[in-house]
Amino acid sequence: MRSVDLIIIGGGPAGLAAAISAYESGCRDLLILEREETLGGILKQCIHNGFGLHTFHEELTGPEYAQRYIDKVLQYQIPYQCDTMVIEVTPDRRVTAVSRANGLQQFQAKAVILAMGCRERPRGALAIPGWRCSGIYTAGTAQRFVNLEGILPGKRVVILGSGDIGLIMARRMTFVGAKVLACVELMPYSSGLKRNIVQCLDDYNIPLLFNHTVVDIKGRERLEGVTVAEVDPKTHRPIAGTERDYDCDTLLLSVGLIPENELSRMAGVRLSPATKGAVVDENLETSVPGVFSCGNVLHVHDLVDYVSEEAGQAGKNAAAFLRGEQKETGRTIPVVDGFGVSGAVPQKIHVGGADEAVNVMFRPRGVYRNAKIVVSAGDRELYSRKARILTPGEMVNLKLRPEQLRRIGEAAELAVKVEAS
Amino acid sequence: MQKRLVYNLMVDVIVIGGGAVGCATARNLSRFRLKTVLLEKASDICEGQSKANTAIVHGGYDAKPGTQKAKYNVLGNRMFQKVCSELDVPLKWNTSLVVTFSEDGIEKLEQLREQGRQNGVPKLSIIGRDELFRREPNLSREACAALLVETGGIVCPYEFTIANAENAAENGVRFCRNAEVRKVSRDETGFWTVESAAGTFTARAVVNCAGLYSDRINNMVSEEKFHILPRRGEYYIIDKRYADTFHASIFQLPTKMGKGILVTPTVDGTILIGPTAEDIDDRDDTRTTPAGLAKSLKFGSRTWEHIPLRDVITTFSGIRAHCDKNDFILGEAPDAPLFFNAGGVESPGLTSSPAIGEFLAGLVADRLHAEPNPNFQPVRHAIPKFREMDAAQREKAIASNPDYAKVVCRCETVTEAEIREAIRRPVGARTIDGIKRRTRAGMGRCQAGFCTPRTVQILSEELHISPLEVTKFGGNSKLLQSYLFTKGEDDHAQR
Question: Between the N and C ends of chain B, which has fewer C-beta atoms within 10 Å?
Answer without folding.
Answer: N
